[in-house]
Write a structure and sequence with these properties.
Layout lengths: L8 E10 L2 E8 L10 E3 L2 E3 L6 H13 L1 E14 L4 E13 L20 E8 L8 E2 L1 H12 L4
Parallel strand pairs: 1-6, 3-8
Antiparallel strand pairs: 1-2, 1-4, 2-3, 2-7, 5-6
């Protein structure tokens, strides 16, 4: 599904259940985020030219975690006026691959990431997620509610 950007930045992210938990990116020592220097996020990133939302999330998860997934369905949308960005969150099913073998730019010594801190792939048990700083907070609330209601 192609999405009109209307000059909005588009970010895609995946919600992937694996080994009795969910795959998250643990971010530590983040200098460029004055509000949160340590937090978790769902794997994802910006679309590349010509990608569909689904293709983008599959690529991002492979780059960040080294695993292959298939998109099951869209879960959430979030418009961030402050960042002029729209985010799409998809439920994804793990297919194969070795977790933690991602080779995306965030793992390189690219100077563009010097203030981005450490990127640590983790599998977090569902019962521990409510206690985390999981960004964006609006999506964390919906995700935790869906977990509690058995919707995932």
């Amino acid at each position: 599904m192609k999405e009109e950007t209307n000059k909005l930045a588009i970010r895609v992210a995946g919600v992937v259940q694996m080994n009795d938990g969910f795959v998250l990116m643990h971010r530590k020592n983040v200098k460029r985020n004055k509000d949160y220097q340590e937090y978790y996020t769902f794997p994802g990133g910006h679309l590349e030219e010509g990608e569909t939302l689904e293709e983008g999330v599959i690529r991002e998860i492979k780059e960040e975690f080294g695993i292959h997934v298939k998109v099951v369905r869209k879960l959430y949308e979030l418009k961030n006026d402050k960042l002029n960005m729209k985010e799409y969150f998809f439920l994804c099913k793990y297919l194969d691959g070795e977790f933690g073998t991602g080779d995306g730019e965030e793992f390189s010594n690219n100077p563009a990431y010097k203030d981005s801190g450490k990127y640590i792939p983790e599998i977090v048990k569902a019962e521990n997620i409510p206690d985390l700083i999981l960004l964006p907070l609006e999506i964390k609330e919906k995700f935790v509610q869906d977990l509690q209601e058995g919707n995932l």
